[in-house]
Amino acid sequence: KKICVVGLGYIGLPTAAVFAKAGYEIVGVDVSEKVVNSLNNGEIHIEEVGLPEMVKQVVQTGNLRASLTPEEADVFLIAVPTPIHDDYSADVNYVISATKSIVPYLKKGNIVIVESTIPPRTMDDIVAPIIQEAGFDTQNEIYLAHCPERVLPGRILIELIENTRIVGGTTPIAARKAADVYRSVVKSEVIETEAVTAEMSKLMENTFRDVNIALANELAKISQKLGVNAHRVIELANKHPRVNIHQPGPGVGGHCLAVDPYFIIEKAQDESPLIQEARRINNSMPDFVVENVEKLTMQLANPKIAVFGLTYKGNIDDVRESPALEIYEKLASNPRFEVVAYDPHVRDDQVSFKLASFKEATADAHVAVILADHNEFKQLTVEDFAKMRTKVVLDTKNCTTLTGDDIKVYKIGDLST
Ligand code: SAJ
After folding, report:
1. What DSSP assignment string belongs to 103-138?
2. Where's the UDP-glucose/GDP-mannose dehydrogenase C-terminal domain (predicted)?
3. Which site among 43, 174, 189, 339 is 20 to 30 Å from 157 CA-CA?
């Protein structure tokens, strides 16, 4: 069987590699010549645990190759981004153009799967009509399904195989046919449902997490006001068998949690006040971190602030919608501060300023602000901060275990030391 995967990003590329490894013939399509060329040389442009080795192997065996244009195949799998416009409405243009791009190559009996996260009813109201306008019957000739990706960056190759998959067909036959494709590689359950139910369940998974993180972030603010240690409160409350308070942090980033709730809000504005408030709370966290930095440096005329971590979470290289970047920019725009940033996972071409080395960042710094829980940061010791002018650390991810008489470590949700 041959699968044409359209979009070779964080989801499309690992998915293509996993199917290739399972023995499928895969052609991966991307609009970027750079991505296509590097993939054909067995190299990849994103960072994900285990992916470089797997891609190298399946390119060598010939099971995976990349192209700028789609080709005829048995299955088409669309994994392109769905960003939001400035007014927070969903931008489904990449899904539309990816669907249109495969139309010339479609044959009766083909299965078309959209993995991109999409607003409710996109399969029925946008994707199906494009295929129908091309002259195909979407009941009996082309089988359409939405199979939302649910993998966690950093664990993608494991979760692609182990997570339960939801396959929403625009017809029951389409759901079954698309589900069978996944059954050949997924170890756990593959559940068939309607397209709109699959769309909505995907959006609610990320909304659930966003709302719960907002609760934790609100607790962090309340705790700082009341002089309570939020982390200890969470630890103790979570001893209850039915309580699972999430972790507060510098905000919610990435291309999923910070985006997907808006797809629901857009379709049900009046019915979604809780989801909207959660977004507001999480979006307010960068300001809260900046305020904390200001509090900690009140006595200093021109403090040097060393920012550690710019990605949206730990152990990845993704800076999309990263609250850490926003915090860096907010700090840097304050003329009182000298701000430098260090991130072992980020390259200079991903950001609009010059990154510092660890040594440059800590030299003569007054405050180190940790914004990502990279493993490299979890292992830091007091000696690593020896060159700081004042050894003050604000750990917004509660990920360090620094202790010592001459270092002050503050955490978000606990400004006591
Ligand atoms: N975060 C917190 N506190 C927490 C957990 C996370 O502040 O307790 C922050 C992170 O630092 C990060 C953001 O939330 O900025 C999102 O991180 P994440 O690890 O929760 O999730 P993502 O965005 O990397 O991936 C999510 C996952 N969804 C769920 O866990 C429900 C993943 O399974 C999805 O496939 C992915 O979104 C997606 O593509 O939709």
Report:
1. GGG--TT-EEEE-S---TTHIIIIIHHHHHHTT--T
2. 306-402
3. 174
Is 278 a pocket residue for ligand 1 (Cβ < 6 Å)? no
The pTM (predicted TM-score) of the whole model is 0.94
Q: How do residues 143-170 score in pLDDT, each as one tens digit? A: 999 999 999 988 999 999 999 999 999 9
Backbone angles phi, psi at 34, to 5 degrees: -60, -45
Please state, in angstroms and rounded to a whole number, the distance separating the CA atoms of residues 239 and 241: 6
Contacts of 281 (CB under 8 A, 6+ apart): 214, 217, 218
Which of 152, 151, 114 has the alpha carbon at shortest distance from 130? 114
Q: Which of 136, 170, 196 is the last residue of a domain?
A: 196
Report pLDDT digits (tens) over 82-132.
999 999 999 999 999 999 999 999 999 999 999 999 999 999 999 999 999
204 pLDDT above the threshold of 90: yes
Number of separate domains in the chain? 2
Angle (CA) 335 249 277, round 5°: 95
Q: 156: CA distance to ligand 1 center in Å?
A: 12
Q: What is the mean pLDDT of the chain?
A: 97
Looking at residue 81, its pLDDT comes to 95
Residue nearest to atom 14 of ligand 1 (CA): 252
Ligand 1 pocket member 152 (CB < 6 A)? yes
First-to-last alpha carbon distance for the chain, in angstroms, is 60
Residue to mutate (ligand 1; options 114, 164, 252, 326; most atoms within 8 A of CB)? 252
Is the CB–ligand 1 distance for residue 206 below 6 Å? yes
Residue that is last in its domain, among 196, 223, 247: 196
> Is residue 266 assigned to a domain?
no
pLDDT at 416: 84
Pairing between strand 64-67 and 75-78? unpaired
154 plus 24 within the same structural domain: yes
Residues 187 and 331 in one domain: no
Helix (H, G, I), strand (E, B) or coil at 217: helix
Quick one: pLDDT at residue 46?
Answer: 87
Q: Which domain holds residue 405?
A: 285-411
pLDDT digits (tens, 9 = 90+) for 390-416: 999 999 999 999 998 899 999 999 998
Q: Kindly state whether residue 57 falls inside one of the protein's structural domains.
A: yes
Does the residue 276 lie in any domain? no
Considering the domain architecture, whether residues 291 and 402 belong to the same structural domain is answered as: yes
Active-site residue numbers? 202, 256
